[in-house]
Amino acid sequence: MFAGDQNGLQGDPRLKAISEAIRVVPHFPKPGIMFQDITTLLLDHKAFKDTVDIFVDRYRDMGISVVAGIEARGFMFGPSIALAIGAKFVPLRKPRKLPGEVISEAYVLEYGTDCLEMHVGAVQPRERALVIDDLVATGGTLSAAIRLLERAGAQVVECACVVGLREVKGQHGLNGKPLYILVEPRQQINCSAPPVNGVETCRHDDLILGGNFGSPEVCDCDSVREQEIVLRGYSVVAIALDTLRRCSSPPPSVFSPPLSPSPLPSHRSSGISVSVQNPPVSENLPVNGAEWVCLFAREMLSATIVNDAKVRASKLLEVSG
Ligand SMILES: O=P(O)(O)OC[C@H]1O[C@H](OP(=O)(O)OP(=O)(O)O)[C@H](O)[C@@H]1O
Ligand SMILES: Nc1ncnc2[nH]cnc12
């Protein structure tokens, strides 16, 4: 539910000011993401205070004794709200940050998984809890927070975020818990080109599948297609890097010795250049899907030229059967 759709807050100028205080950074941390940077909201004393006040006004009489903030950006709003409504603040942290005994909940991100942890004993059974974060995109993080609190026996009254999409994809996955959002994510650039046959010419859909708030922001309609291709290229590299980072132990290359970066003899097939020299394949082939993904990411990042990448990809397809 949006604060602006609610009784007293319809047309409230504070919401517009809060929205405008949030900086939008295109293609951060990866191509296609319109990053909603709340650090600029924190620099604006009035907008920051208004943000906290709106939450405090909503939650002060709801019998909430726990405000659970999600690392890291939920920590920037949660403690102030907790102090003002007379609740305790419980940090929900990323793995291996809390020193005491913890319970953990894994959740799915765009590419890979992450985990939230909470100290055992921080919350008592039947306590009424509010979950606070800066932003909801897929809802995966909030869902993990809800599961943690419910495992400890708490009753999650609501989740609250400063920024969120009107149609939060993950809302149905929030275990039926209500979600309260102050403002929608902003797109940075407005498109002035006229529609053609009723179709918006400047809009191009999320460049990365699930790329949160990733469209539309490109207005040079003639080059949209070209930019999209380039961005998809960047995306593949970003995904590979991200995947590799998450691999607990990167698998060894299946190519032994490593492929040479020099142009390889090739024959043409369907327009793709493929090596006719089959490098020896290591015995250590992946044993499951996750290992194959890690291996693919590793090979793509090891490639020095496009031909090298194509050879590695075709070899992987061959050895994977
Ligand atoms: O709705 P979701 O798709 O789960 O995404 C929302 C989460 O993503 C961001 O955190 P991030 O994981 O980037 O961590 P950070 O706050 O430590 O930067 C944001 O602060 C939310 O916690
Ligand atoms: N677009 C976005 N901006 C800031 N944080 C995010 N977390 C997930 N998507 C985000």
From TrEMBL:
Location (main, coarse): cytoplasm
Enzyme class: transferase
CDD domains noted in UniProt: PRTases_typeI
Lineage of producing organism: Eukaryota, Viridiplantae, Streptophyta, Embryophyta, Tracheophyta
Domain Phosphoribosyltransferase span(s) in chain numbering: 44-164
Species whose genome carries this gene: Hibiscus sabdariffa
Cross-referenced InterPro entries: Ade_phspho_trans (IPR005764), Adenine_PRTase (IPR050120), PRTase-like (IPR029057), PRTase_dom (IPR000836)
Region (Disordered): 252-273
EC number: 2.4.2.7
Record has Glycosyltransferase as a keyword: yes
Name of the molecule in the record: adenine phosphoribosyltransferase
Biological pathway: Purine metabolism; AMP biosynthesis via salvage pathway; AMP from adenine: step 1/1
Catalytic activity: AMP + diphosphate = 5-phospho-alpha-D-ribose 1-diphosphate + adenine
